[in-house]
Each structure stands twice: as structure tokens, then as C-alpha cells.
Amino acid sequence: MTDTTSFWASWELFRDAALAGTFAGAILGALGVYVLIRRMVFLSAALSQAASLGVAAAFWAQVQGAPPWLATPTLGALGGTLLATALAGIPVRSSRRDGLLGAIYLVGAAGTLAIGTKIVQELQDIESLLFGSGVAVLPEDFRIIAWLALVLGLVQVWLHRGLLHVSLDRDGARVQRLPVRFLDFVLVLSLATAVSVSTRLLGALPVFAFMVLPALAALDLAQNPQQALVLSALFGAASGLGGYWLAFAASLPVGAAQTLVAALLVAVVRVARVLGDRAQAWQAHRAHALLEHQAHEHGPDCGHESVTHGDHFDYLVDGHLHHPHDGHCDDHGAQ
Amino acid sequence: MLLQIDELAVGYQGRAILPRMTLRVAPGQLWAVIGPNGAGKSTFLRTILGLQHPVAGTISRGPGAIGYVPQRSEIDSAVPQRVIDLVRMGVERGWRVLDPLAARRNPAVEAAMRDTDVTALARTQWQRLSEGQKQRALLAQALAGEPTLLVLDEPTSAMDVHAEAGIFAVLERLRAERRLGVVVISHHLALLARYATHFLLLDKDEQLALVGERETVLRHPAFLERYGQVLDRGGRHD
User: Fold this and answer.
1) How far is B51 from chain A (nearest CA, A)?
2) What pLDDT does residue A122 have?
3) Are B198 and B214 in contact (CB under 8 A)?
4) Which of A248-257, A259-268, B22-31 is least confident?
């Protein structure tokens, strides 16, 4: 049985976890377009680490006897993300912004490592928190990510015009009296909830990857930001599901496999884009050459070398044999 | 009146960087904002656009929208955007942007693209446009909101002379046909002397804010001292 066949044969076992990765990939992929346009990649890294610290802190609090209904990992992740968002919103000079985000990232990563070593449970350990090596999700967690995907998807359908406008041209949006603060709030809330819920399920590494790599590929391929949102959601979903399959087939950690699939998509799109651009440039060159050629008359003094081709003479132009006759000129192919 | 500015002081953190200014922008007027680099021109522009608070004084806007044409360098070339996408953004106003049913096809978009001669470039990516085409696309974006006042920040910087003249010719046509009020920062004195109806000469270092009609300012000693020779040569100043 091939890996693919056995993967689908075992689908019932993996369905919730694989679909959770797919939903998270789609949400974070779409939101990643805003992250890249607003140049806040480092913020997304800091948020995912802060969320993982929140999850670790919630488990630790449970071990210490805190009521389970209060110290839930999802609430912990949300708390960590919102705290990090509030800290990142502190007005500092732009030159210090990166430093502040770096501090949040480092405290998140180090804190998760420190606390994570103290909590070893059935579904959560330090590796799954940081790198997403978990292979199962609880039914209630699956329901949360499914509802979140639906709600955030509807928010995008409703508000993407305004969210993109504010992200692309903030001054223009303010001059046009768009509700900039409201749209900022919606975007930050979307990011905070998506990052916290996804980090709790998948781990910090794939969450960060989903927020950067699908959008990178989508912006390379799309004609406009709206298309990029759709493409990025699709690439994110494909990375989430494809990564789960790769993890199954190659016995890799899920988070690492999802990140690698997303990175592969970026590479494939980049190569396709470069080849497409070259083909377009070549076509433009050919069209230009054709125009020049149509205006050119071959003859003994035209400047092109005359060569024998079968039973007639041709002229050599850029390695191609040109044969003028009856008022037009045929290309007899490369010499 | 499209814009009424009374005793306006512009600056940062409560500190004025220029003397107080009073001026009125009426329909059909083209105001040229000139001065050396770092003179406070952009601070003035950002203040009248509402992007930063005035230190003192009042700014009253008349009826109708303001169209803002930023510098071309402020558009991120790494983000894919066609001319049509850029121009459509100009239609959005206030909370209407939250209406998901707002029509994508808007006659104002087509009219703005026609007026600025970018209709044939509608599907062209921003990064593939020439500097002159980019400026016309940004102008179309501002016009798509059907403004009564147009504010432009150095629309002809990094352009060749031919493209510069083309942009000012479009502005002049819009001013005449649509009775638009225009406020423009530019360094090209020869074109400004030809098309502007009013001047605002700013110089932060000399604490100068000279306001007036074209003939008045062009003959003023403060202007002649700075730009008399430049204008005689028909060129731009730095």
C-alpha cells in the first residue's frame, strides 16, 4: 500500500487533526498577506511565541492546582497573544520597534522552554508547543478552529476592502476618512485569535510559517492584493493538509512538514514566476524583432550573411534563416 | 470656499516651525507650495490633510472631498497592483468601505482614468509603469473620489521635462474643466510660474511664510532673492 493510500485509509483517525491544520493554514495564510504588506513579519513571530508561552503557562497553572475551566490552554494562548499585542503597541521610536518585538519573541521562546519542561501531558509537551509535533486534536479544539475559520473567513469577505486599503495606503485611508482605528482593531483581533487558537493546536513554528510563506508565494503570483488573499488562503490550506500527509509519509514532525511544504510552494511559485517573466520577455523580444524584420528588406547590401539552404539562399538573422520571396519573408528555422 | 486656513501654525509636539499663515483656496485656483528642502512644505501639506494636528489656528474644509496624491515612492512596488485596483481605492469614503455590496463598477473610476489617459493601462502592473504613467495613475485614484480639492506632494519629482509638462497640462485642464482647487508642492518654478494662480513660499530656517497671488509673490523681494535667477533660467530649484 502506498503512503497516500494508507493515509486516506486511515483518514478517520487523522481527519480532525489534518482538517485543523488545513483551517489554520487557510486563516493564517490570508492574514499573512496583511502581515507582509504591513511589514510586520517579526510581530507575527513574536505573537506565535507569546501564544505558546500562554499555553505552557496554562498547563503549568493546572499542575499547580488552578481550576481547569480557568487555566485552559486556549485562554492561555489568547492571554499571551493579547499581552504581546499590547506590549507591541507601546509607542516607541521605529528604530527600537524591532528590539521590542525581539524581546517579546525571546521571552516567549525562553519562557515556553522553561515552563514546558515542567509539563508533560498526553497531548502537550514542549516539542508540540514550539515546533508542532502533535498529531491529534481534541474534538472541542477542532470545533473551535472550525468556527474560527468560518467567522474570520466571513470577516474577510466583509471587510477585506477596508483592511487592504488601510494596510496599503494608511495616509490615503485617513484622508478619505476611512475608519482606520476600527479596521486596525479588527485586524489585530483577527490575528490575535487566529494565532492563539492555532498555536495551541499546531505549535509556534507552523503558525509563524503559515503567516509568512503562503503570502510570500501568493504575492509573487497574484495580480492584485484581493487575489493574493484568496491564493494565500489556498496555499496555507494546502500546506496544512499537505504537511500532514508528508509527516505521515516520511515520519516527520507535523509542524516541520507543514513548514517545508509551505516553503516548497514558495520555491515552486518563484521558479514559475521567473520562467514566466523570461518567456514574456522573450515574446516581447520576438515581437520587436518581427516588427524590425517586417520593416527590413533583405538584399546583397542589407548587412545579413547570405547562406545556402537546400535549393535556395537565405539570410542569417540572430541564428535564424530568413527567406524573402514574393513580397514577404519566411523564417526557415534555426541554422 | 474649499479650504479656509486662519492663523495656522504647523509643527511638531506643540512647537511651531513656521510663522502663522492665513489663506483661502477657492474653486479653480492652483496653489503652488515652494521652498527649499526641509522648509516645512510637507508638514504644511500633512496638516491641511488632517494627517497631523496643527500647533495653533484653524483649518476649515468646504463641502466636497479632498483628493490626495502622495509621492510615487510611497507605493510599495513589491505588492502586486494593477492600475485599475489602485484607482478603485480612490472611490472609498468613510464608513462606506464597510459596505460589501458597494458596486465595483463605478462611473467615477472610468471617468478618472479617461481624464488622466490611463484607461489603456488599466490591467498593467504598477511596477511596470513609467514615472509619468505612475503619476497619472495616482492622479486618477485621487480623481475617482470626485474631489473638489486636489492636494499633490511633488508630483513631478524624478520625471523628465516632457513628463513634467504633461502632468501640469493635465492639472491645468482639470482645474479649468472641473473647477478643482489644487494645492501642489513642486520644485519646478518655470511650470509653476505658468500654471499657478497663487503661491505659498515657505522657509523654516528664515521663518518665512509668504502667501499671495502669483504676480504678487513673483515680484516679492523675498522670492526674487531666492529664485529670481532660477526662474530666469527656466529651471527647477532644489
Assistant:
1) 7
2) 42
3) yes
4) A248-257
* Distance between CA atoms of residues A257 and A6, nearest Å: 18
* CB-based contacts of A185, cutoff 8 Å, min separation 6: none
Q: Which of B82, B93, B98, B153 to probe the A interface (max A CBs under 10 A)? A: B98
Q: Residue A178 is nearest to which of B70, B94, B141, comparing CB atoms?
A: B94
Contact A178 B68 (CB under 8 A): no
**Exposed / middle / buried, residue A138 (Cβ in 10 Å: 0-12, 13-18, 19+):** middle
Task: Tell me whether residues A171 and B95 touch, CB distance under 8 A.
Answer: no
Partner residues linked to A322 by β-bridges: A315, A331
Handedness of CA B39, B159, A225, A267 (dihedral sign): negative
Interchain proximity B97–A162, CB inside 8 Å: yes
User: Which residue, among A175, A180, A277, would best test binding to B if mutated, counting the most B CBs under 10 Å from its CB?
Assistant: A175
Contact B187, B153 (CB under 8 A): no
ipTM of the complex, rounded to two decimals: 0.90
- B81 to chain A: closest CA residue: A224
Q: Which single residue is written with the C-alpha cell 523628465?
A: B160
Mean pLDDT of B26-36: 95
What radius of gyration do chain A's Cα atoms show?
27
Residue whose C-alpha is closest to residue A155's, from A25, A31, A29, A24: A31
pLDDT at residue A259 greater than cutoff 50: yes
- Determine contact: A176 vs chain B, CB below 8 A: yes
Pairing of strands B21-25, B3-9: antiparallel
Distance CA A63, CA A254 (A): 27
CB contact under 8 A, A169 and B70: yes
Contact A159/B at CB under 8 A: yes
Of B209, B216, B236, B18, residue with least CA distance to B224: B216
Q: What is the pLDDT of residue A218?
A: 97
DSSP per-residue letters across B111-167 = HHHHHTT-GGGTTSBGGGS-HHHHHHHHHHHHHHT-EEEEEEESTTTT--HHHHHHH
Enumerate the domain spans of chain A: 12-263, 301-334
Class of residue A247 by CB neighbours under 10 A (exposed 0-12, middle 13-18, buried 19+): buried
Give backbone dihedrals phi and psi of A312, rounded to 5 degrees, phi first.
-145, 175
| Measured distance CA(B98)–CA(A160) in Å, rounded | 9
Q: What is the DSSP letter of A56?
A: H
Q: Does A227 touch chain B (CB under 8 A)?
A: yes
Instruction: Identify the CATH assignment for A12-263 out of 1.10.3470.10, 1.10.3720.10, 3.40.109.10, 3.30.70.1520.
Output: 1.10.3470.10
Rounded mean pLDDT, A87-98: 75
